[in-house]
């Protein structure tokens, strides 16, 4: 028994990522062979393009449309392959960043198995094709570069080049794919401040950072003032319906006033004070606590116990940069916003290394205290296995309540079993009985 425990402890990071990939299999299978209706809104938005002039969110769809004109590729196959690659790359970046924490099993478990991070796109099928994956990929790639710089695996010169010729172009592309990216640029600036503050002590880093990130002001202005008009929207809707038989959700194009401050404020008021009831509020607060606040408190605890060490300067300023992450709560689905927020907090945490002595000291203190140990165990089990972050964090249109107090992990294990059975029945043993639906 001791040998098995030792092997599990030593290889836990590999086992957890293997579990993540296995649990992801039904979602991947569903993206290729399932009904698009299950994630129609996110999938259909991928088709928005520039065929009738510049319009927000159109870059990805324009790339597809140009390829489609040349090859007549099945859109479902095209987007499924692209998103499979994107999700796998994000998982790989998580793995690269968590490798330096592979001795700290508790941290591995709560990050890898969190319903608010990678599993959000698995448990919530509607979120699988959402364009937020580009924002998450960009922040985790930047986190990986900063982590390598801090631990002297790359030089400041290399980081500077990666920033200018990789991160900034990716941010530009992500902005043109979805404008929500602009609210997460401050986290990238925070990462750069951390790097430049360490290596450019005698230089005015504000000017240096402005020169680099100032390039993104132009696309932000273009998106803000040239986000499309009703005629373009009508033409695109007709084109997509004619060629692909799809409909764009009306919220994407809600007329010339869509996106103005008063309109957004009015929509926020109607959504929260007309549709929301007490149960919706409870689910919203619960989801926010276990997605965003959970990881924020984790970081603050690691700081307080000196398990993670950051400079006094960074400790003073980092919260201000994360304030921008609250703005999307006025703009889009709450569960989606919480997941993006949580990804960016975790990307920030994973920049740093763990102080081994202080970690073990706190672990031993908790282990020796019976009540603390049991509370931590129960909280951990609950946080990874007994709740699900829905796309809307509780509320769907029409006043329906999404299930949140259920185990996404156990549900997906059941789905995996059913999907595996169907694949075997359809492709290998046709005499097996159909599963009841």
In words, what does this structure look like?
- The protein has helices at residues 2-33, 40-45, 59-71, 75-98, 105-112, 120-123, 132-150, 156-177, 185-199, 205-213, 217-225, 230-244, 261-275, 278-304, 312-322, 334-349, 356-368, 370-385, 408-427.
- The chain is mainly α.
- It is 67% helix and 0% strand.
- The longest helix has 32 residues, at 2-33.
Decide which structural class fits the backbone: mainly alpha
Rough shape?
globular
Mean pLDDT: 87
C-alpha Rg (nearest Å): 23 Å
Helix share, percent:
55-70%
* Contiguous helical run count: 19
Low-confidence residue ranges = none
Sheet with the most strands?
none
Number of E-type strands: 0
Order of helices and strands: HHHHHHHHHHHHHHHHHHH
Kindly, what is the distance between the CA atoms of the first and last residues, rounded to a whole number of angstroms? Answer: 41 Å
Which key phrases capture this entry?
single chain, about 425 residues, 19 helices, globular, mainly alpha
């Amino acid at each position: 028994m001791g040998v098995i425990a030792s092997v599990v402890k030593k290889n836990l990071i590999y086992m957890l990522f293997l579990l993540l990939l296995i649990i992801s299999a039904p979602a991947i299978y569903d993206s290729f062979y399932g009904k698009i209706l299950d994630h129609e809104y996110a999938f259909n938005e991928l088709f928005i393009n520039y065929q009738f002039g510049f319009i927000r969110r159109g870059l990805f769809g324009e790339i597809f449309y140009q390829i489609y004109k040349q090859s007549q590729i099945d859109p479902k196959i095209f987007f499924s392959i692209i998103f499979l690659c994107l999700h796998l790359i994000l998982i790989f970046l998580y793995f690269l960043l968590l490798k330096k924490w592979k001795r700290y099993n508790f941290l591995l478990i709560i990050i890898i198995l969190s319903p608010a991070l990678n599993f959000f796109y698995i448990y919530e099928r509607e979120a699988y094709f959402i364009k937020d994956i580009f924002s998450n990929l960009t922040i985790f790639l930047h986190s990986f570069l900063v982590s390598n710089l801090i631990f002297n695996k790359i030089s400041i010169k290399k980081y500077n080049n990666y920033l200018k010729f990789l991160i900034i172009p990716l941010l530009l592309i992500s902005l043109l794919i979805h404008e929500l990216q602009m609210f997460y640029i401050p986290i990238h600036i925070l990462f750069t401040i951390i790097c430049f503050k360490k290596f450019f002590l005698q230089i005015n880093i504000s000017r240096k950072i402005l020169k680099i990130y100032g390039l993104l002001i132009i696309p932000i202005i273009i998106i803000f003032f040239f986000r499309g008009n009703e005629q373009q929207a009508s033409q695109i809707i007709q084109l997509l319906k004619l060629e692909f038989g799809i409909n764009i959700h009306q919220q994407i194009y809600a007329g010339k006033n869509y996106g103005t401050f008063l309109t957004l404020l009015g929509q926020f008021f109607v959504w929260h004070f007309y549709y929301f009831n007490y149960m919706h509020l409870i689910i919203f607060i619960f989801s926010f606590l276990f997605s965003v606040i959970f990881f924020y408190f984790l970081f603050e605890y690691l700081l307080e116990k000196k398990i993670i060490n950051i400079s006094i300067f960074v400790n003073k300023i980092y919260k201000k940069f994360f304030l921008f992450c609250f703005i999307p709560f006025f703009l889009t689905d709450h569960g989606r916003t919480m997941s993006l927020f949580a990804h960016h907090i975790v990307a920030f945490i994973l920049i740093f290394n763990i102080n081994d002595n202080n970690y073990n000291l706190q672990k031993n203190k908790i282990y020796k205290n019976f009540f603390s140990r049991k509370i931590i165990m129960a909280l951990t089990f609950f946080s990874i296995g007994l709740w699900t972050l829905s796309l809307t964090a509780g509320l769907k249109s029409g006043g329906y309540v999404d299930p949140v107090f259920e185990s996404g992990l156990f549900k997906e294990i059941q789905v995996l079993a059913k999907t595996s059975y169907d694949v075997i029945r359809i492709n290998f043993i046709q005499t097996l009985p159909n599963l009841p639906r």
